[in-house]
Please model this.
Amino acid sequence: MTELELYGGGELVPSEDAARWARLAELDQAADEFEPRSENTLRSYASDWTVWERYVAEVGIPLEAGTPGAFLGFVIWRGKGGAAPATIQRNMYGAAVCLRERGVAVHPDGPKKAKKAIDVLARMLAEEGEQRGRGKAPALTMMQLRMMSKALPDTLKGLRDRAILTVGFGMAARRSELANLLARDVVVTEKGLLVHSRYGKTGARSPAIKKGENEWTCAQRAWLAWAAAADLDPDGPGFMRFNRHKMMGPISGQGIGIAVADAAEAVGLVGVTGHSMRAGLATAAREAGHDYKTIAVQGGWAPNSAALHEYLRIVDQWADNATAGIGM
Model:
């Protein structure tokens, strides 16, 4: 007769079955704990935790304090230190995640009350006319993209940066997406480019970029010129980094941002970042009459992305304006 064991709420089951159920319970627990995160997210959480460590050390409270008072004090401490409300909110949520991962029972009222305090700080700063942080990256216009591309020299680095600008704008790329492209991920067709981003914030995607009408903003032309000049290995990086004008290996997401910012600075544009290409495609496409779904698919935005809604609102507020046609 098979040996019996207690399992669950006192139920007798065969020992072999009990082992199987125990293994299943382990898998279920692993599934509950499974939360894949990108390298950027992990770096962000690590940075947020470092800020939290500084905070508790300065105010003299336990490191693993998950109470409402600890979170409210964090907002006040960061606010007095001159941090922007958006930065404080990110730090606060990141610290809460790290605390939970350390087994701390974070009181639900902590982040809630802290968020209300952040809103109060944002309103006070607005009333006082004080702006903290660099703010949102401005959307790159087609005219600005053309200026930046045209100003780049026809050197190997200049050809690379022109390809970064035009391919990045055309696919509304995140910096990490461009940095992680392999040369074979960019497929040249008669109609333009098919770019296979193997992974991203919303998963893999393959946006199509049509041939450009202007020589300085044509992604296909820019990519072909760069790929030929750099003699890219199909299985190697799509974009390389340079050290004193010598190619040294794959570029980083930060390197993408630097290339865009440098090209903007060269033509006198202020505040342009790598994200400006992404915002620029969204606004330019909306101005051209494209609908929300088409733009969301091109840029890999989530169906209800608040960020995309904000980009489109910038355009829509003029296209359908309540003050138009009323005799003002």
User: Anything to note?
Assistant: The chain has three domains: 4-33, 39-128, 142-318. Residues 142-318 form a domain with the hpI Integrase; Chain A fold (CATH 1.10.443.10). The chain has 13 helices and seven strands. The radius of gyration is 25 Å.
